[in-house]
Write a structure and sequence with these properties.
16% strand; globular; Rossmann fold; 351 residues; three-stranded mixed sheet; 13 helices; single chain; alpha/beta; seven-stranded parallel sheet
Amino acid sequence: MILVTGGAGFIGANFVLDWLTQSDESVINLDKLTYAGNLQNLASLEGDSRHIFVHGDINDQQKIATLLREYQPRAIIHLAAESHVDRSIHGPEEFIQTNIVGTFRLLDTVYRYWKEQEGKTQQAFRFLHVSTDEVYGSLSKDAPAFTEVHRYQPNSPYSASKASSDQLVRAYHHTYGLPTLITNCSNNYGAFQFPEKLIPLMIVNALAGKSLPIYGDGQQIRDWLYVKDHCSAIRRVLEAGTPGETYNIGGWNEKPNIEIVHTICNLLNELRSADYHKLIKYVADRPGHDRRYAIDARKIERDLGWRPVETFETGIRKTVKWYLDHQDWVASVQSGEYRKWIETHYQEHVG
């Protein structure tokens, strides 16, 4: 049995669904169910005894300790995090509490549980912390891609909080011997992504006939990783990664944001027979906007034999089709906290 934190969110839900497709090993899914955590993402698992959902917060050490004693998981996959840069700019404290304090409390509770284990059970245990390439900061256009030894230079409250959590995980390995693993991934996209991130926001806005707001000149470059590829990489790191090591997970797909938006428009034009390019609108850049991220994922390929399966072209087509086929899911998340957030952060750019 494994315990997944944040398993009702975008990456978490995809990971849980993929895990239970690939394995009969049960999953304890701990999620606070904030705005981005959605049990609808896991509707297909209703009645599946292998999926044990627990509504809870990683800051609640007593609840975590109880879960660990009751279920005795062999591994923790730590995905729970506040994860959107724009939100961190407008409200950084939540990011500090969840990503730094929450990770500390989770680590500390897990460490005490691990210390009580014996022999092979203790040796086989793993704590896998899922992080981001944003901890490395920003790259110039021609600079080499981020490797695992690249200096941390976070530029937003979000990336600073994730960098801090990475360092705590590293410290618990080197100080206490907890068998930890860290993964730093590039930008994910795919099914169930909350429509505040670039790709789902563009799809959802386009289908609603709203403007497609592009920050600055649209030339910010990101490496794009299809979420199911990310899930397979996490499984591989859990299976064969060396405790204390960090593994970069990338899609080998560097693209500027404006190219991503044009690709989405092209696909929607094809699938819906309309001209969506006319909705593109350039808006003021956000503060501290990193120009380029790029992941060097050679280590995970060399050491663990993992490479992504999807190209950007195949992954983005699957993603656009998923949103077209799941308008009910889109409608259900476009209320309450989401609507409030859009009005606050995009204001006149949403019409």
